[in-house]
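Bug: C-alpha cell stream looks shifted between consecutive jobs. Job 1:
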Amino acid sequence: MANVLIAGGGIGGLAAALGLAGRGHRVTVLERRDTFTELGAGIQLGPNAFHALDLLGVGGRVRDRAVYIDELRFMDGTTDERVASMPLTGDYRERFGNPYAVVQRSDLYEPLLEGCRSHPLIELRGGSAVVAYEQGGRGEVTAVLATGERLTGAALIGADGIRSAVRRQLVGDGDPRVSGHTIYRSVIPMEQVPEELRWNTVTLWAGPKWHFVHYPIGGGAFLNLAATRDDAAEVAVVGQPTAREHVLNEFPELGDTARRLLELGRDWKAWVLCDRDPVDTWTDGRVALLGDAAHPMLQYAAQGACQALEDAVVIAESLDCPEEDFVQRLEKYSAARRERTARTQLVAREMGRRLYHPVGEGARERNAMLAALSADDMYDEVAWLHGADLR
C-alpha cells in the first residue's frame, strides 16, 4: 500500500482518489479551499463518462440524479430553423452502451465526494493549497503547501485545475490561453419556462460569431442557459455578475424562439473561456497531471469532465503496482492519455470556429453539411469520443 497525494479536490481529483483507493492505496486529497464544494451549473455526460463512473463505483448514484436527454438538437439561431438532430435513445444507447445525460454540477460532484468520505483509505484536507513539489531521493515526492507544511508520498497527482501550481512547475507554460469568447450563464426554475419550450434536449442555436445552448438540469427542475459570444475578449474573467440587458444586447440577431428563451435568464454571470495547447510532458518522476491541469479544453465538445473521469480510471489502473514501479507507470498513464485528450482539445476549438460561429456563406455551408448527415453518420462522427472502452 502506497500513500498518494492529490493536489485538487474537484471532479478529477476526487475521481482519481476513488480509483487509487480502490486499488488499495492510501490517498490524501489536498484542496485549496476550506470546504469541498463544486461551483458551476450544468455538465453534459457522454457514455464514456458513465463508463468511467461505473468503473469508479459511483455510476448508479450519478444516474439517479441525471436527466436523460432525447437528442442533441442543432438550430439556426437567426431563423429558428432546425438544422439537424442526433437521437440519443435506442440505437445510440445500444451502440455506445450507456446513455447521454445532463446533470447539475453538484449532481456529479456529490456522489464522488460521498464515495471519498466513506472510503477508509481516503483523507480529505481542505485549506491545503499545493504551491510546489520536491522530488525525494528515496522514492518519494514532497508536496509543499501555502502554509509551509510539507507532505510526503509515493506520488503526487496534480489535479489542481487550469491554473495548476503543479503544472506551472512541471511544464512552465505560463498563463492559460484566452480564447476571445465570453460565455454568459444563468439557471432558472423550469416552472418559469413556457410548457411549449420545455424540451428534453440539449439545444444549440448557432449565429454569426455566437451560439446559445440550453438544457434541463437538477432532475428537470431547472433550465441551464449558456450564451457565448466571439467578442475577442483578451482578459480572463471568472463568474462576473452581468446585467440582463447587457446579455440581451449581445445577441441582437436571435430568432424569436431563441430570444424568448434567452429573455428568461436572470442573475447572469460571465466567464471568458480559456484553454491551453496540448503538451507532451505530463510527468516529472513521481508527479503527474490530470484533468484540467493536464488538458484544459473549451466547452464546445462537452468533454472536460468526461476526460478527467477517464484520466482517473487510467491512472488508477496504471498505479496498480508496487510503488517502486510508479515512475514508469505514470509515464505509461501519460502515454495512454496524451493523444486522445490532445485531439479532444483541438476538436473543441475547431467546433467553436467551424460549427458554432461561422458567418454568412460559411454558416449556410455548415447548415447544408449537417442537414445531410443521417443519425448513423453522426454516430460514426462521435464514436471515437463517446465509445471509449477503458477496461
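Job 2, same session, no restart:
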Amino acid sequence: MTTLIIGGSGFLGTELIRQARAAGQRTAATYHATAPAVTSEAAWYRLDLRDAESLAVVIAETRPSLIINASSGGADWATTAEAPVRLAMTARKHGSRFVQVSTDAVFSGTGRARYDESCLPDPITTYGVAKAAAETGVLAVYPEAAVVRTSLIIGHGHSTHERLVHQFIAGTTDGVLFTDDIRCPIHVTDLAAALLELAENGAAGVRHAAGRDAVSRHELGVLIARRDGLDAARLAAGLRAESTLHGPLDVRLDSRTTQHLLSTRLRGAHEFLAAGEEGNHRSDQTVA
C-alpha cells in the first residue's frame, strides 16, 4: 500500500508522513517549491497542482492506494478550487481512496456558531469560496471520496499560531490576538491520525475533524504561552470586528458525528496544551 501525501512538506503533511510510515505504509509525498530538508521518510516529487501532466507522472510512478490532499494554495483559485477536483478524478480513475482536507473557512460564522456536517457552506472570503468550490467539485466527480473540514491546527510549537504567540511575547512582532474570533483548534497528531483512519474505514462525504473546545484566538494564545512558560500578560487583546481584517468570526465545527467513526480521540485545546502535547490519544470509547 502506497500513501501519497499532496503537500507533504507542510505542517500537516509532515505529520501524515510520519504516522503513515509508523504504520508500515510505503509513502510518497509532494512539495511545490522547496524540497524538504529530510527526505528519508518518503519518496519525494516536485509538483505544481496546476500542471495536469506533472500530476499524471506522479500518479503513474507512485500508483497510490490512498491520496490525501493536505496542500494549501491560499486564495489561488487554480490550486485551491480546481486542482482538488483534478486530483479526485485521477484518484477515481486509478481506484485510489481520496481524502480532501478542507476548512472551517467555508462558513461565514454569522447566524449560527455551531456547524455540523449537514450545514451548507456560506463562505465570505476568497479562500473560503475556493475551498467550498473544491468540496463540491470533489464529491461531484468522486462521491466515495472524503472531504474533511478542520480548524486551526496546533502542535509541537511549529504551527503559525504558536510561532506568532512567541513573536508577540518576545516583542519581535506587533499585533493583537482577537477575543471575538472563535474556533475549535485541533492537535496536528490527532488530525493526521483521524485522516488516515477515515481513509482506512472508507468514510465518504463531508466529515468534521476539529477539537472539542471552542476558544478565541486570544484564549488559545494564553494557553500556548502557559504551556511554554511565557508571560501571557504580554499578549494584547483586540476585536476582529473592529479591525480591517475580513473573515468569519465565530465558527465552531461540531465533530461529534465523525468522532463516532474514530478510535482517534479529537482532544480540545485545554486538554492537549495542558497535557504537554503528549501526541495522539486513542481510545476504544468514542466521545459523545
